């Protein structure tokens, strides 16, 4: 059985990335660090794809092309983990484990590059900006990613999870993660004084009513045997005391598994926005606008390849690899899989206390106290290393 040893520099790389997080499309330092590390380890690196994105290729001659993706960006949260390597950037932290994904990928890549008997083929590493914004993968594709690298025979990706302890991997055959749509509602009005509430539309009241109504769409407009989420995660209405806000914006997020559910929800949201605008005395299309900012397809695992990977992980590593239901989270690695036209496998790496229970535990990803257990890095690096190696060796049956 393979051990979980890391390159000696990998933990320091992880801590350095954690200290200096960067938001989407601003990851210049992060991309530079990874470009330097991967170049040093023998990968040919191309920077600036989709802004801050980069690709790194290790070419060992004829053979399969095996690709993987890791994310460069952090989240706009103030860290409160009290870790000795906590974020030094005010209001920004790696609350979703992307720093660990990067360090694990770099460690796995270095170990493979150092193998004198590595099977022939090419390893393609895609380091993507702005995963949290849902648009980084699309930006790389628009900027020529598919033409810049050989088409992968398989696309592999992993993500930390607080839903499982260290030493547990988890994945789903078939649909693994939901599709996500992000929309923005913006409204404008002349504003006015709060002492004259009858002198014009109140945009904050419009946004509040709209938010409440949108949160009923799933409960009243989606069949109860289907799964979906509609939420309004952000409202902005800049103003001052005594003034009605002259503008307001509401971010709307939708998660669905099936297109037969997604399309009616999009139609219903448009109808609700139009109706609430009319009720507030606002003209839809003029005072109120609805924009569709991004679409992320659902993540689909190729069952045959995923099942081979499960057996491989359990035979080569001291881990359990479990089957779990699909999650209503999303990941725009699906955009890359669509663009490449490649089969894909996506799995989770447990980051909770070793020996802990399965299921929701705190702190969770996307919270200001989330910090993977220190042993997670070695497991993630080994899981990715063995998956890439299996792809090169033909053990994943990707043909």
From TrEMBL:
Q: Which organism is it from?
A: Streptomyces pyxinae
Please give the NCBIfam families that the UniProt record associates with this protein.
amidohydrolases
Gene3D superfamilies in the cross-refs: 3.30.70.360, Zn peptidases
What range does the record give for the signal peptide?
A: none
Return any one Pfam family short name: Peptidase_M20
Question: Which spans are transmembrane here?
Answer: none
**Domain of life of the native organism:** Bacteria
Query: Which named protein is this?
Result: Amidohydrolase
Which ranges form a coiled coil? Answer: none
Q: Please give the InterPro entries that the UniProt record associates with this protein.
A: Amidohydrolase (IPR017439), Bact_exopeptidase_dim_dom (IPR036264), Peptidase_M20 (IPR002933)
């Amino acid at each position: 059985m393979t051990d979980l040893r890391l390159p000696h520099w990998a933990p320091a790389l992880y801590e350095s990335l954690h200290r200096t997080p960067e938001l989407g499309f601003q990851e210049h330092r992060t991309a530079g660090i990874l470009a330097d590390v991967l170049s040093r380890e023998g990968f040919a690196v191309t920077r600036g794809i989709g802004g801050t994105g980069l690709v790194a290729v290790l070419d060992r001659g004829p053979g399969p092309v095996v690709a993987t993706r890791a994310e460069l960006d952090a989240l706009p949260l103030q860290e409160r983990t009290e870790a000795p390597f906590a974020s030094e950037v005010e209001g920004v932290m790696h609350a979703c484990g992307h720093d660990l994904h990067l360090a694990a990928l770099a460690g796995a890549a270095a170990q493979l590059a150092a193998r004198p008997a590595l099977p022939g083929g090419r390893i393609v590493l895609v380091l993507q900006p702005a995963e949290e914004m849902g648009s980084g993968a699309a930006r790389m594709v628009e900027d020529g990613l598919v033409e810049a690298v050989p088409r992968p025979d398989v696309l592999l990706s992993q993500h930390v999870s607080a839903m499982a302890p260290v030493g547990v991997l988890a994945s789903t055959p078939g649909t693994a993660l939901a599709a996500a749509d992000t929309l923005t509602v913006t409204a404008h009005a002349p504003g006015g004084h709060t002492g004259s509430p009858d002198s014009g539309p109140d945009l904050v009241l419009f946004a509040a009513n709209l938010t409440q109504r949108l949160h009923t769409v799933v409960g009243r407009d989606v069949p109860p045997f289907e799964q979906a989420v509609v939420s309004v995660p952000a409202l902005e209405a800049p103003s001052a005391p005594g003034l009605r806000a002259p503008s307001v914006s509401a971010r709307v997020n939708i998660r669905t598994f099936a297109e037969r559910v997604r399309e009616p929800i999009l139609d219903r949201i448009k109808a609700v926005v139009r109706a609430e605008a009319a009720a507030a005395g606002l003209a839809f299309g003029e005072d109120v606008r609805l924009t569709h900012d991004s679409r992320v397809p659902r993540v689909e695992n190729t069952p045959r390849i995923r099942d081979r990977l499960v057996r491989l992980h359990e035979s080569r590593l001291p881990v359990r690899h479990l089957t779990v239901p699909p999650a209503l989270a999303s990941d725009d690695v699906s955009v890359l899989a669509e663009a490449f036209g490649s089969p894909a496998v996506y799995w989770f790496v447990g980051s909770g206390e070793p020996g802990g229970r399965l299921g929701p535990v705190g702190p969770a990803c996307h919270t200001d106290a989330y910090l993977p257990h220190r042993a997670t890095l070695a497991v993630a690096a080994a899981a990715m290393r063995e998956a890439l190696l299996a792809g090169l060796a033909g053990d994943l049956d990707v043909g």
